[in-house]
Structure formats: structure tokens, C-alpha cells
Amino acid sequence: TSPRRRVAPGARRAPHGAPNRTYAPRFRQAGRQTGGRAGEMAMEGSLIALVNRLQTACSSLGDLGVDSGDLPSLYDALPQIAVVGGQSAGKSSVLEAIVGKDFLPRNAGICTRRPLVINLQKAPEGTTEEYGEFAHRKGERLTSFLAVRQEIEAETERAVGAGSKNVSPVPIFLTICSPNVVNLTLVDLPGLTKVAVEGQPESTVREIEQMVRKYVARPNCVMLTVSPANADLANSDGLRMAKDVDPSGERTFGVLTKLDLMDEGTDSRAILDGQTYSTRFPFVGVVNRSQKDIMGNMDMASARRKEAEYFKTHSAYGDIADRMGTAHLAKALSHHLGTIIRDKIPSINALIARSSEKIREELRILGSPVPLDNRGDMLYEVLELSRFFDREFGAKIDREGAGEQLYFTFNTKLGMAIDALPIDRTLSLPNVARVVQQADGYNPHLIAPEQGYRRLIEHCLRLLKAPVENAVHEVASILLDVTRKVAASEELQRFGVLRTRILAAAEESLTRFRDEARRICVVMVEMQSAHLTAEFFRKLPMEPDVKAVTGQSGLDARTEAYLRRIASNVAAYYEHVADTLKVTVPKAIVHCQVNKAKAAMLDAFYVEVGGNEREGLRELLSEDPATVARREKLSTRLTLLKTAQEDINATVL
Fold it and tell me: Percentages helix, strand, coil for the chain, rounded to the nearest 5?
């Protein structure tokens, strides 16, 4: 059997049955077709320029990654190289050497107080113009790099305050175009420090640590850790941070500065060979301009020649001079960044697709802004939203949990409440005797105590009012809860005034329906005692039941048997009425409350809305400011994602 071929990262295998070759994305093949390594370099440059444009677009449209909130962030998904190191490690010198210009602020203490995203663009062949352009001053090319430095300082002060030494996580975006740079994107982060400088709050040390960590913790961030060779590597702030977030060293580039300042007879060959600190990429040594060189106005070209000469002639570094120096570092970073971008394009495309779908769905729920200039359109929108409320209310009653709650109230709670009434106290023998005697007064009954029967029945039926009224109120509470849930739906949430008015109208109707249902249900109870049918009592035995006498009442046997017969007959009528009410009360409640709420809850509101003029309708359709702001944010982010996808397609395909 033939050995398995290794598939390059990001490539895909041939379909089953196809010739055994590796299928690569089209942009890779395009790179090779333009002429080997030169073609790949051109494609890498195009991809880096693509990311530069996307980062600038993210900045201008409010996607700053760490401050993106709950919106999906494209900025976080873009590969970038962050420069990390202590305050005195030589970060600024390395960056200026890569760019070939003096453009970064220099002073005592913390020079970088905001992240600076530097997009390096190699100028077209034959172009000699060099300039810097800031995203916040788009279209204005600064050919003086002293002006670039001054603008960095001014823009920093605009964010943190004039004369302040505070820091800010909001990045500055700077594009530098020159024939002397490679295509590359670098993020210059504030230098890590252990002690706040004069005039800074003590919290600054922690703020810088947190800011840098948020950047380098991103999986798509490559760390360029800058460490001085004349200090113990174990104390390197940049490597300490890298070890925390990238313990395997897969995303860490190491740079050693100040090799020329090491003690005589010492060198950093072991570090440069990866014997001291293990990372995926070998350390690169650089020699920056000394303070004397800077004061003497040594240009960058001379500094690079001096650096190259240093490595070639040094006994410890001569054999590795080809992989040392600023020029090699810039090319290595550019190549690596281009490779990462190329491999990340599929996942970036997937993120854009997922995020766009999610945002479109939320925008669909929020709805489009309502035109507020035409009365007819506004009236139609208000009525549509009101009808939506009606439909959702009915759906929750008929097909969702509210219907189950109503059923439980009618068929379980009402019956249990009626069965639990203390009817036995009303029909106790002493109470029956007392009521009958009071009803007879001075003129005792001759055959049957009719007035006593009536009073006992009234007393018993009066107990039924409480559970019946409770059922009415509980149904009203269930219906009110449904209206509040519907009013809280996303479709109505955006219109605060309209939602409040609809809810108020619904509550007013439910109160009216409740009162009507209560009145009818109470009448149903009262009418059972208002007219007693003789037919019911004719069927009941009237003779005393001597067998039921217990002898414990203290009464003679005949009197006890007589009173027990009265209590038994009243209980029979009460149970007959109670069983009837268990059936008829739910019918009355459904008719007076549930059905009317489903059919006519907003009838009065519809009439009121129809009489509104333009101003009244405009007020009803005024949106919640949070909803307006959210829609604008989502629309802006969707525009960013759409633009990014078009740019990626144009570059890659």
C-alpha cells in the first residue's frame, strides 16, 4: 500500500474515487499561478491588506472586539500580531525599525497609552511616496512622520484627557504606506509595568495588564514578545504574559533586543537556538539604534546596515546572521500573518454567515422603522399590532398553558373549595334546633318547619358564594397574566406607549368582564334560595329517622330524630345545588370572561384609535429609545459583515 499523503493545513482531500491529489482553496492555486514564492508573497500581501481593510471597517462601524457587547465581533476573528513587552524592553524601537521611520511617541514613563493598530502597506512598484493615514482622519495623508507622532499623542489625549497619564482600551488605527515596508499588521500595546508612574492612579498597572491580556488571549492573536537580552529572561513581562495565555508557545514570536548591550564575554546564543525558552518559532535577535544614534539623527537605512554588520561579524551570531535582524523579523512576521489569514478565511466566512443570520433574525423581530408621516399607514400599523395582541391572547388561551390553568380552576379547585366548606357546622343539631326555633318565633310550626328549612338553606347556600367568587377572580388573574405576557412580546416591546395603552385597555375590559361574571355567578347562588321547588322536597322522607339517633345529643330520641331528618333534607338540597353550581359556574365564567375576552377585549380601544389624528397615532407608534439604538447597532454590524464578505470574495475568489 502507498503511504498516506500529508494534507496541508486548510486544504481538503479529493472526493472519493477522484485522483489522489490535494484540493486547495482557489486563492492558494491563484497564488502559485503567479510564479512560485513570488506569487505566494503577492497573495499573502493581498490577504494582509484585506485584513487591514476589515480592521479599519470594524473600527469605523463600532466593532472593537473587547467592547462589542453581545453583538458578534468580526474584529475578534481577524488574525493580528500584538507587540507585548515591558516598558523598557525596546518595543517602540523594534516597531520603528520595522517601519523604517521615527513616528512613535517617546518620553519617560508609559509612551503607549492606547492600542495602536499599525497597518503597513507596501507601496506599488516605482512609487516613492511615504505617508501615514489615520482612520479617524480618513483621506488625509500625513507625509511628515513627525506629524504622525503628534497626531498619535493628540488622539490619545482626546480619549484620556489633556495632560492625563491614564490609559484607554479604544484603539487608534494608523495605515503607513511605503515602498520600504512589508505588508503587515501590528498592534502596539501599552508596556506592561509593575509600578504606576508619577501622576497615574495605582489602578493603571492593573488596567494595562487586563487590556493586554484581552488582546493576547484571543486565539487569532500572535504575540510578538519583546525582551531585553541584558536582563534575565525569567523576568520578561512579555514572556510571562505569553506563558499564561499560550503555554504551548504556538502563538508566540520571541524578539531579543539590546544584544549589543550585554556584558562583554556573554551572548544569547542559547536563547536564539531555543534551548532556554521553547516556542514554535525561533527567537529573532535585533539591534536597535542607541540613544546616541537617535540624538545623532542616524537614519533607519544606516541603522539596518549597522545591525546587519553586527550580526555578521559577531563570533556567536555570524552563522545565524541570515535569520537575525529587523529585516528578517519583518519578513517572517509578514509571511506568518499571511499564512494564518489564509488558513482562517473559511472560519471567518462561517462566522460572517452565522452572525449575519442571527442579526437578520433579531432585526426581523424588531421590525423596520414605522413611517410616521401618513395617517393611514400609522393607523394600519396600530390596528395590525392590536390584532396581533388579540391573536396571541387567543392562542395562549386555546393552545398554550393558560387553557390548562383555566381547566384546573374549573374542574379541580372550584370543586375542592366547595367540598371543603364547613356545612357540618351549619347543620349541627344545636344549630338546626336554634334556627328552627328562631324561625317559628312565638307561633310554633304545626307540621313541617318551612321557615326553618328556608333559613337553614339560605345559611348553607351563602357559604357557596366565597368559592364561586374566588373562581371568578382566579380566572381574571389568569387572563390578566396572559395579557401581560403578550404585551411583553418582542413585537410589541418596541412600542412602549402603544403597549401600555393596549395593556390598560385590556385590563379595563377584563375588570368589566370579571365584575359581570361575578354578578351573574352570585345571582346563580342566590336564586337557588330565593325560590324552593316543592317537587324536590316532596321526594324527601319527612318522617323522623329513629335509627339515626345516637343518644349523645342530650335530646330525647324523638326530638333528635326529628332534627336529624331536617338536617339531612337540607344537606340533600345543598348538595344538589352545589353539584349544579360546579357545572354552571364554569359555563358562566367562560361565557362572561373567557369568550368575551377573546372576542371583544379591545373593541373599545379600536374605537378610540380610529378617532386619533396624526399626532395621537405618532405618539402610539413612538419607539422605545433602547429599541431604536439596538436596531441601529444591528444594522451597522450587518453592514460591516456584508461589506466584509464582499471584500473577502473579491480578494480570495
Answer: 60, 10, 30
Fill in the DSSP letter of residue 85. Answer: E
Q: Which residues contact 344 (CB under 8 A, 6 or more apart)?
A: 77, 79, 220
Given a cut of 90, is residue 62 above it in pLDDT? no
Q: Which residue has the cell 462566522?
A: 351
d(CA 320, CA 318): 6
CA distance 554 to 560: 9
- Which H, E and C letters describe 48-63, residue by residue? HHHHHHHHHHHHHCCC
Q: Is 325 exposed, middle or buried (0-12, 13-18, 19+ CB in 10 A)?
A: buried
For residue range 473-499, list pLDDT tens digits in order.
999 999 999 999 988 887 888 888 888
CA angle 303/91/57 to nearest 5° reads 105
Going by C-alpha positions, the residue among 459, 514, 198, 495 that lies closest to residue 372 is 495
Helix (H) or strand (E) holding 87: none
Q: What pTM was estimated for this model as a whole? A: 0.60
**Kind and range of the H or E element at 246?**
none
Q: What is the dihedral of CA 547, 548, 554, 559, to 10 degrees?
A: -80
Bridge partners, 121 (sequence order): 177
- What's 95-124 look like in SS3? HHHHHCCCCCCCCCCCCCCCCEEEEEEECC
3-state SS class at 573? helix
Q: What is the pLDDT of residue 325?
A: 93
Q: What is the structure's pLDDT at 479?
A: 92
Cα–Cα distance, 224 to 186 (Å, whole number): 9
Chain mean position to CA 471: 41
- Alpha carbons 88 and 191: distance in angstroms, whole number: 8
The contacts of residue 473 (CB under 8 Å, 6+ apart) are: 514, 518
Q: If DSSP codes are grouped into helix, strand and coil, which group holds residue 222?
A: strand
- DSSP class per residue in 268-311: -HHHHTTSSS--SS--EE--PPPHHHHHTT--HHHHHHHHHHHH
Residue 90: which region, alpha, beta or left (left: phi > 0; alpha: psi -120 to 50)?
left
pLDDT, averaged across the chain: 82
Q: Is 558 helix (H, G, I), strand (E, B) or coil?
A: helix
Amino acid present at 262: M
| 133 three-state secondary structure | strand
Element (H, E) at 175: strand 172-178
CB 593 within 8 A of CB 518: no
Is 42 or 9 the better-scoring residue by pLDDT? 42
Q: How many residues does the chain have?
A: 653
HSE-CB at 331 with a 13 A cutoff on CA atoms is 12
Q: How many CA atoms lie within 13 A of 158 on its CB side?
A: 10
CA distance 639 to 490: 23
Which amino acid, one-letter code, is at 394? G
Query: Any long-range contacts for 209-212 (C-beta under 8 Å, 24+ apart)?
Result: 211/115, 211/167, 211/169, 212/82, 212/84, 212/241
How far is it, in rounded angstroms, from Cα 41 to Cα 39?
Answer: 5
> Looking at residues 355-381, what average pLDDT do you find?
84
Q: Which three cell numbers stand for residue 265?
A: 564575554
Sorted by sequence, the CB contacts under 8 Å of residue 357 that are 6+ apart come out as none
pLDDT at 465 over 80: yes
Higher pLDDT, 165 or 585: 585
Classify 526 as helix, strand or coil. Answer: helix
Bridge-based pairing of strands 252-257 and 284-285 is: parallel
Query: Minimal CA–CA distance to 435: which of 423, 421, 453, 447?
Result: 453
